[in-house]
Every structure is written in structure tokens, then in C-alpha cells.
Amino acid sequence: MKTVEFHTCECSAKRAFTDERAAQKALGRAQAKRDRTADRRGQRRALERENRVYQCHFGMWHLTKQSRRSYEGYADYCAA
Ligand SMILES: [Zn+2]
User: Fold this and answer.
1) Three-state SS for 75?
2) Cα end-to-end distance, the chain, whole Å
3) What pLDDT is stored for residue 43 in this prediction?
4) How many domains are there within the chain?
5) Which residues contact 33 (CB under 8 A, 6 or more apart)?
6) Residues 51, 66: contact at Cβ < 8 Å?
7) Is residue 10 part of a domain?
8) Would you say the C-alpha torsion 24, 53, 61, 46 has a positive or negative sign?
9) Tens of pLDDT along 5-51?
10) How far apart, in whole angstroms, are the C-alpha atoms of residue 30 and residue 66?
């Protein structure tokens, strides 16, 4: 598979993408990788993984992780 092209952005040193499609593609790859890891550990829901993309002030796209706090809130919501 072709490697997704990425750049650095002025807002941070993390990976940045020039358009939403590229960011979504990278997000899918990151999630698939983490899902395989989670399966080996018998944990379907990984605590930390990128789960969405957003566009920053500089017009670049980034991946972001759901925070620990929001994950726990989500888990509580599902258990209710
Ligand atoms: Zn940025």
C-alpha cells in the first residue's frame, strides 16, 4: 500500500495532512493497527487510539485521540 504523505504543521510537531481525505486514510490505518494489537490482548476496545480528524488554524489536518476522561464517560454511558 502506498504510504500516506504527511507533513509537519506550524501548530505542533505532530503529523499533519494537507487534506481531509489523506487524514481519514491515515486514521483508518492507525485504527486497524491498534485493533489488531487489542485483539491479541483480548481487549476489543483500545484505550488510546486516534479516533477522529480535525483541521487546525493553519489549514492542516491532524489525527486526535479521545481523552481518557471522555473514554471513561463513554464506557459509563454504554454500561448504563
Ligand atoms: Zn496544525
Assistant:
1) helix
2) 41
3) 60
4) 1
5) none
6) yes
7) no
8) negative
9) 667 888 875 789 999 999 999 999 988 887 777 677 666 555 567 78
10) 14
Instruction: Report the SS3 class of residue 1.
Output: coil
The alpha carbon of residue 10 and the mean position of all alpha carbons in its chain are separated, in whole angstroms, by 19
- CA–centroid distance, 54 to ligand 1, in Å, is 9
- For residue 56, tell me if it sits in a domain: yes
For ligand 1, the distance from its centroid to the CA atom of residue 15, given in whole angstroms, is 8
What one-letter code names the amino acid at 20? E
Cβ–Cβ under 8 Å, residues 65 and 26? no
Could you tell me the distance, in angstroms and rounded to a whole number, from the CA of residue 74 to the centre of ligand 1?
27
**Looking at the domain assignment, is residue 58 inside a domain?**
yes
Judge whether 50 lies within some domain: yes
In the Cβ-directed half-sphere of 15, how many Cα atoms lie within 13 Å?
Answer: 16
